[in-house]
Amino acid sequence: MVGDPLNVFVEPLWYFADPAKRLYWLHLFGSLMLAGCYFWLKRSDSTVWIALRQVCELRYWWNPSTRIDYVLLFFNAALKIGVFVPLVGGQLAVALATARFIHLNIAETPALSAWPVMISLLFTVTAFVLDDLTRFLIHVAMHRNDFFWRFHRLHHSATTLTPFTVFRTHPVESLINYLRSILSLGVVSGSFIWMFGPQLQVWDILGVNALGFALTFAGSNLRHSHIPLHFGWLERILISPAQHQLHHSKHHQHCNLGSYLSVWDRLAGTCVRGVLARDLEYGLRSSAGTVSPTPVAEQQAAGDEQVSLVGERQKTHSGNGVRATLEDAAAY
Q: Domain containing 326: what range?
């Protein structure tokens, strides 16, 4: 595939059939069902219907902001297949190198024996948790380091959020994310291969880590959207779409840096409840420097007041939040 330039540039067209991609049709279907439940439960709120109508309009999906998303989707896909994979390699190479290094330099393979189900469960959970932790750490660095923020700010320049916004990344950030992925998963896989050898098997769904697949199905495509679905008490464990929308907000200090698990934000003091995601404005602030997320105690203290203020604003402005965002996108 790498040798065929046409295949390199049309690769994203197959994302809808790739279970490892967020745009996989089943993941989109899962998000669509959750969005339907959200609109049904909020059907008595007139602002919800205004938001729904605007999301269904062409200008929501086709404006200066979203067009950048589409260009970067194809460009970064071509870069990964045509450059990153051939030059850097993949997860399997890292896993085998890790297992060999441990065997030759630390200790010989112990050939541990255990119930296969327990090995699979341990490997599946370890791989998922470490992958999520490294995502969080890289994301923190992107926001708190001036050098990395120069690249990550492109993602936050989006004024309209759609499921395609996840692909709105600078090529340098794409390379960093690719290296993080193959290193974290490769090291975990190699370590387990060294310990358990041929007994190793991950629990998967359609070839994807079962935990990652299930959580992606459960609304990941709503994170980059204008549908503020929050998880209530479950946000003590998981990041909800509304929480990630708060992360993109101009006025919430880039809180909620986690990908799937909220535990990292809770430990770092950057976790903010998704219920506050109302009338958000997306894009970069006039001062585009790095932002140190506001401690959760300060956010929560301000949040109690903000709920009442935002709630009143919702009643009097009838969904101007989405309309304002679309108008900002047109001027981007």
A: 5-330
